[in-house]
Specification:
five-stranded antiparallel sheet; alpha+beta; eight-stranded mixed sheet; about 30% strand
Length: about 700
Amino acid sequence: MTMTAAMMLATSACTTPEKAVTDESPIIGRQEITIADGRLTPEALWAMGRIGSSNVSPDGTKIAYTVSYYSVKENKSHLVIYVMNADGTNNTLLTQTAANEGEPVWIKEGSKIAFLSAEGGSNQIWEMNPDGTERKQLSHYMGDIEGFRFSPDGTKVVFISQIKYGERTKDVYPDLDKASGIIVDDLMYKHWDEWVQTIPHPFVASFDGNTVGEATDILVGEPYESPMKPFGGIEQLAWSSDSKQIAYTCRKKTGKDYAVSTDSDIYLYNVETKETRNLCKEDADDKNMGYDTNPKFSPDGQYIAWQSMERDGYESDRNRLCVLDLQNGKKTYVTESFQSGVDDYCWAPDSKTLYFTGVWHATSMIHSTNLAGEVQQLTDGMYDYTSVAILGNGMLLTKRHSLSEADELFTVNLKANNEVVRITKENDHIFSQLKLGKVEPRWMKTVDGKDMLSWVVYPTDFDPEKKYPTLLFCEGGPQSPVSQFWSYRWNLQIMAANDYIIVAPNRRGLPGFGMEWLEEISTNYGGHCMDDYLTAIDDVAKEPYVDKDRLGCVGASFGGYSVYWLAGHHNKRFKAFIAHDGFFNMEQQYLETEELWFTNWDLGGPYWDKNNPAVKRSYANSPHLFVDKWDTPILCIHGEKDYRILASQGMAAFNAAKLRGIPAQLLIFPDENHWVLKPQNGILWQRTFFNWLDRWLKPDHQ
């Protein structure tokens, strides 16, 4: 289970600032690797640079962007900054030390680049020339700065830093300052992978061109987080065009109220008067009660837009694009004709058009909409476009990947029939050595006669005269798209490189096929979504090159739940299962997870609400109830810092299999969360994954 939109696939690891750097720290840069046989390996995946954020200079001629590099030997990463011309030429690495550097933005009319660096021992705002020279620390805040934005007039800066939340044990009992126990009085005491002892707040400070001045906490005295945990960043705050106001995202709830609600709002803070308005609740008739996030002002200052979900407690509701006219207070939802969610967006320079990305039929494309809500698709192909920004002169800057290529930066020429041109070559030195499996879309009929799209990926050097073991890929979310995603863990091409055919169905509950298809999964985990999995594997198994006696089933999060459920319902189709971070006992999951709005919505509520038919249906499909029907080897993987789905779920499933006499293996990561972020753990994950599959699906495997 993950949050929606940009958070959901976890296709690349998050890079956090290092607290301090010593002279002995190795500088981790672009990794070189030789691939002898053209097959993708775990080591090759971790050798790839991962493109992160990007920012365009005011004149549109240059782009600053970040790349994360990973060292398996050092078991760590390094975040660096590059600058290049807008056409991709003169690409230059600016970071020359072992300190992480990120969040580059152009300031002082493009004469300087501001960025975050941990070089001084904590994460602070620095500036440098566009060639990397004349580096200077601008902020000297007492804590780490996690993100920032300078005001349009350059006289102020808003930044994010953590503040203390709640009391510590030593606050209550000063004489027990070494006690490790945590006293808990309310919910949301843990979130994602941390015990919640700090929360982020936005601070505003003056800037005289040389030094960031004394900071003011915009939410001073308020026990609320902004941006919102666990994934929110500086994109949840925005400056008004006149530099007088700051829009911020906040869910002003704590404890149990926070745990059961997704009702966040957009607030407008006046820097001079310190007055705050709630833009989402000013109209008494406004029924919008879900997530409102990521505000952006139009260039002319007349409008503010944000992503908006309608229903409280439904974290996977459709993300609509809301535009508020600040002069007359009128709200317009300008993407209503697009029956899927908005994942990223930006304003056009004329303040009359917005560009956005969103998934439809298993690909994520760039679209435009005017203020009247007339939507047009601008790109096409078997790709996922994941970001969009104005480059200038009728050009867009975007990041794109697919099932067969990692992220690179591209331009889209709106004046030349939306021509798409790649401008970075971050991993060409690796991909030029690879032979990748062919990817095909495949439509199939479901048990109730509907059309379902699956991706099928064929092995490297596929020979249709041979028979291949085949894997069913079960997606997480549970409402995350099976689009043209690129993952450094659940990578379908590395499965193909190991001579497996992979079928990845866009089963019931996934976006991009209309709201009815998306929402059929809620309180119905054992319904057509499971039928769809079996439809997909049965349909592909009809092919002569599929070995029906060597089928496997793999998945994480809801995909892990799917594996546990299918283990008791597959009628001997599969010969091997792998479940990562899946929930096994739904009653326990309801009480263990932190974001209770999810289980309330998706399961219908607590299991003790026995008169609720949705609740009865949900908990009757708990995988642990069907262990008596398990008959197939299973590998269970889990991280002990996963507070979304606790590791006890994976341990219980493993124990159940062993007690039933079923071959089983458990891979536990004491230091990983719902994902696997450390390089050596990532390599171990891949090796264990394929060793298990090969053991049961390849008869000649030794």
